[in-house]
TrEMBL record:
GO terms for molecular function: L-rhamnose mutarotase activity. HAMAP family: L_rham_rotase. The gene is rhaM. This is L-rhamnose mutarotase. NCBIfam families: YiiL_rotase. It comes from Dysgonomonas termitidis. Keywords: Carbohydrate metabolism, Cytoplasm, Isomerase, Rhamnose metabolism. SUPFAM superfamilies: Dimeric alpha+beta barrel. Its EC number is 5.1.3.32.
Length: 104
């Protein structure tokens, strides 16, 4: 098992919409993540900076950030593109964070 963290950027004024969309996450996307070995997936929001902090545990070689070739993920990215900073392919601008401390 590996831990992975990353940050993304939420456009101002879309905080409630971001939470609403994730509260109704598509079952097929959730299943894809589980089937890929992603668990304990949590996203935190910093109100002052509109920075999103994502954390997930990975059992395998792929994280949620590696699934861009999947049509379900591409559809989700397109759905979220209007409220997040994105790359030209609609993937969220996602910056990996280096782990510097962990305590069990």
């Amino acid at each position: 098992m590996k831990r992975q963290a990353f940050k993304m950027y939420l456009k101002p004024g879309f905080e409630a919409e971001y939470e609403k969309r994730h509260n109704a996450i598509w079952p097929e996307l959730k299943q894809l993540l589980k089937d890929t070995g992603v668990s304990d997936y949590t996203i935190f929001w910093d109100k002052e900076t509109n920075l999103l902090f994502g954390y997930q545990v990975i059992d395998g070689d792929s994280s949620s950030q590696d699934l861009g070739g999947n049509p379900i993920v591409q559809k989700w990215w397109a759905y979220m593109a209007d409220i997040m900073d994105t790359n030209p392919d609609n993937s969220p601008v996602s910056i990996p964070l280096q782990e510097v401390f962990h305590m069990d």
